[in-house]
Amino acid sequence: MTDLYAGLDVSLELTNICVVDGDGRPVHECRVGSDPETIAAELKRIGSGFVRVGFEAGPLSQWMFFGLKQAGLPAVCIEARHAKAAMVAMNRNKNDRNDARSIAHLIRSGWFKAVHVKSVASQELRSLFVAREFFVNKLRDHENEIRGLLRPFGLKVGRVSASGFDARVRELVNGNPQLEVCIGALLDGRAAMMARLSVLHRELLRVTANDELCRRFMTIPGVGPVTALAFKTAIDDPARFRRSSDVGAHLGLTPRQYQSGETDVRGRISRSGDEFTWTALFTAAHVMLTRSCQWTSIKAWGVRIAKRSTLKKAKIAVARKLAVVMHRMWRDATPFGWGAPA
After folding, report:
1. Within this chain, do residues 235 and 319 fall inside the same structural domain, yes or no?
2. Which residues contact 24 (CB under 8 A, 6 or more apart)?
3. Same domain flag for 236 and 310
C-alpha cells in the first residue's frame, strides 16, 4: 500500500486538496466544499493509505480537525507561520492550488509544528468570556463616544462611576432637545449592553464557582474568575507541556532572542501567545503587586525585581511565574503554596 499525504488549503467556502505519495509525486488534485464530510469522502475515494492530512491553523480548524478525525483520517493542524513560510518558499505564484501543493509537501517532509486543537468544551467556555469582553470593550467605546460628543458644547462628564454615568449625562443635556434625543438614544443602547453584560458576567461567575480547578486558581491573590477561566481554556490540556516553564513561552511572556556568533540580544516579550490570556495574567500580577494585602513568596520576589529594575518588568515576571505555578497546580492537582520558594 502506497503512503499518501494530503494538503488542504481551507477557505470559508471551498477547499483545495492536493494528495502526494511518499516520493512527493502528485496523485490527485481537486477543489471541494469546505465541509469535513465532503473532504473525507473525497479523500477516501482516492485511497486508504493516508499517513497525514494537514491544513493550516485558521477559523475553521476545530471543526475541520474533529470532523476529519471522526471520519478516521489522521488530521494534523499546522502552525500558521510554518505553513506561510513553506508557501512563500515553494511558490513564485501564490494561489490556492499552489498553497495546497506546498502544504502537502510540508506534511510529507515532517518539517512542521503541529498545533494543539482545543477541545469543544474549552472552545465553548472561551466563547463565554470572549463575548463578555466584547461588551466590556464596546461599553468603554460607547462612554467615550458620549463624552466626545458633549465636549464641543463645554459639557464635561468628569470622573463618575459606571452606575452614575447615565444620570450625570442626562443632567448635562437637560434643556437641550437635540442633544437629549441623540445622547438619550446612546444611553438607552448603553443600558441594553449593560444588561447583556450582566447576564454574561453572572454566567461566568456560575461556571467558575462550579469548576474545582478555577476555584483552586482563584486562591492565588490577584487571580479572579476571568483569569482562571482564560488560563484553563488557553492551556486546555496540561499534559501537552513537558515542563511548566514552557507555558510562559507558549503564552508569549518570555523575551525574544537573537543569537548569532558573538551577538546575543534579548528584546521585549514575544507576545506570541493568546493575547487575552497573557493580558489577564499581567492584570493579575498588577493586582498582586499593587493592591493585594496578602503577602506571598511570589509577591516578595516581584517586589525585589521592581526595586532593582522597574515595576512593569516585575509585573511581566510575576505574570510568567503565575502561568508556571498555575500549570503546576493543575498538573499535580495541588493547592497554591503561599510560602513555597519563588
Report:
1. yes
2. 105, 108
3. yes
146 shares its domain with 240: no
| Angle, alpha carbons 315-320-321 (nearest 5°) | 95
238's CB contacts (< 8 A; 6+ apart) are 327, 330, 331
Residue 123: CB partners within 8 Å, gap ≥ 6?
Answer: 62, 233
Q: Is residue 115 part of a domain?
A: no
- Domain boundary residue, one of 178, 210, 242: 210
Single-letter residue type at 197? L
**Which residues span the domain enclosing 171?**
121-210
On whether the CB atoms of residues 53 and 70 are closer than 8 A, the answer is no
Per-residue pLDDT tens over the stretch 78-91 = 987 767 776 666 77
pTM for the predicted model, two decimal places:
0.85
Task: Give the chain's domain count.
Answer: 3
Neighbours of 311 (CB within 10 A): 15
Three-state SS string across 104-126, please? HHHHHHCCCCECCCCCHHHHHHH
Cell 471551498 identifies what position? 14
